[in-house]
Amino acid sequence: MASKNQVPCGPCMFDDVTKNAGKWCTNCEEGLCEDCGNSHRKSKILRNHKVISIDDYRKIENIAISQVCEHHGENLEWFCKNHDEAICVVCVPSKHKTCSDVIPISVALSNARQSTALSDLEDAIETTLLNVKQCIKNRESATNDLEKQELTVKNMILETRTKVNLHLDKLEEKLLRELRETADSCKSKYNKFLRNLKATEEKLNKLKEQTRHMKQFSSDIQVFLGTRQINGQINSEVESIKSDICATKDYEFKVSMHSLLSLNYQTKLKSLDK
Ligand SMILES: [Zn+2]
Ligand SMILES: [Zn+2]
Ligand SMILES: [Zn+2]
Ligand SMILES: [Zn+2]
Question: Which parts of the sequence belong to the B box-type domain (predicted)?
């Protein structure tokens, strides 16, 4: 039985027998079991066919090489040296009618393995491969460079962040100090006025007491003169309080933030062609 990964023997399959092939004929393009391989080898007409192992066949089975003309579907049995092109029997009288060097392909492929076309192909593959390798190396080192640059920028951002933090700490400290100093100064002005008011209150209480005693115990002339003198003192106290009140202010704190504090971030990436 031929399993999925096995190649069946072509001649046996022709007899509706399924057998695994151990060999592959590249000319017949089919697998050969041991028995069919032996008879294939003995047949005079098949003797110079190129028979390879199934392992080697695995290496070429996926190489798509067409042996028929893409325009006419006929086998490519002719070769035009003028056009360096394999052609079919229909191509010969049409496109290559005037070509002087049209030969059977069997003649042309006699030294196919040593041809310059093949060595040119090998060279082209080798050169292209080298170029691709160079490109890979180049892109790998560009990726490395990019990673280094990324790290540098990242460090710069972190450093800037630290600096901004430090700056904000200092700014906060300065603002709080100014606030405290301003509040202290306002409070000391309030306190000064408060002390004046309390002293006035004390004086007025004394004058009230003196007036009450004068009324009770002093002579008429003393009451007459005293009334006027105490009145003068009261008036001067009233004037002094009035001018203090005029000079008094209610303080209020206000904070204004600069518009620059709403920050804009801009990232600019540049790529340079060498
Ligand atoms: Zn067979
Ligand atoms: Zn064969
Ligand atoms: Zn053709
Ligand atoms: Zn031609």
Answer: 4-54, 64-105
Kindly report the number of other CB atoms within 10 A of residue 100's CB atom.
8
Domains and CATH numbers, the chain: 1-65 (4.10.640), 66-114 (3.30.160.60), 131-247 (no CATH)
Separation CA 15–CA 9 (nearest Å): 10
pLDDT (tens digit per residue) in 182-225: 999 999 999 999 999 999 999 999 999 999 999 999 999 999 99
241 CA from centroid of ligand 3 (Å): 124
Angle between helices 220-247 and 116-217 (to 10 degrees): 170
**pLDDT at 56 > cutoff 60:** yes
Name the closest ligand to CA 52: 2
**Residue partners of 58: CB distance under 8 A and separation at least 6:** none
- The number of residues in the chain equals 274
Ligand 2 centre from 29 Cα, in Å?
7
Distance 56 CA to ligand 1 centre (A): 19
